[in-house]
What does this fold into?
Amino acid sequence: MASSASAAPTVSKALFGTAKDGAVDLITLHNDHGMTVKLSTRGGTLTEIDVPDRKGQMGNVLLGVRGFEAWEKQVGYNAITGRYANRIGSGGFMLDGTFYKLPVEPRSGTILHGGFPSFSSKIMAAETFVKDGRAGAVLTLVSPDGENGFPGELTLHVTYSLGNDNMLRLEYAATTTRPTVVNLTNHAYFTLGTHASGPVYDQKLQVFASRWTPVDANLVPTGEIRSVAGTPFDFRKARPMLDAIYSSDPQIMLGHGLDHNLVLDGPSGGKPRLAVRLTDPRSGRQLEVRTTEPAVQLYSTNSAGGTDAGDGLTIRQSDAIAIETEHFPDSPNKPNFPSTVLRPGETFRSVTEFAFSTDKEPFPK
It folds into this structure.
């Protein structure tokens, strides 16, 4: 934790590059322990998170590409997704007696991450700050009424901040002019051994979730909520991800790996609670994820097919694990799931924290 002798974290903003739709900035957060976070105003994309291993060697624990042009082609990685993160089925959703038809994929009848353009592809306004021992930036986006079929003009503010506690915090706030549905996350891909370490099979995952939501052939939840006991989704005790990703369980076969929603234990909506722990035995790096959200979607980079990362390596299947704190997929069509409805006069709020350390400072029991 920060001491009285610690220097305050810093923030800087510089031009990342110029695209057809405008200038894109790169924001850099840096703390007194050498941790660095870089994010692009294109979709609030996290381009880099550098943290030390047990020997003090810095490494980037995000899977991604190098350089502005490459990131322009790789829209979606490590970015804010919305208006509705994850999937909505049934061709759309009913709200207050009106059916809102969405631009779904024709064969499956589903829409993923709010369709295109998703929030991940949009340039956001950014204001930087240093306050209360944290350095950060507030990114703002206004999504017009009817965009991708969703009702209401939605105004979104996402605050990224870093302290000397080696914790990156994301705070979301959204308002609407008409009743709508909202589900927001950052689709960050983590590999604590860095990209050079290869697939995440040996990295150990613990998820504080006793239940999960099975999916149909289109990876949309069926509406059932099951116990994780006896399934590949039982990460209540930390274990390597290899056996789950390679399982022949029908649900794993549908997703070609992990691509499922786990229901977090404990009440949501209050103080961020412990959701996920990820450790890398080789480097000693650790990540603890806390959130106010009711669930987390795990995705083991199942569709990666050889993108040139620009670091002498290609992005392959299982090179990272996405840890998407969010509401349940297809909640607008599942009345037994926690509601994602947002109405005028209300404010959607959500907080997720990514706290980094090494095994020299073990997690508390």
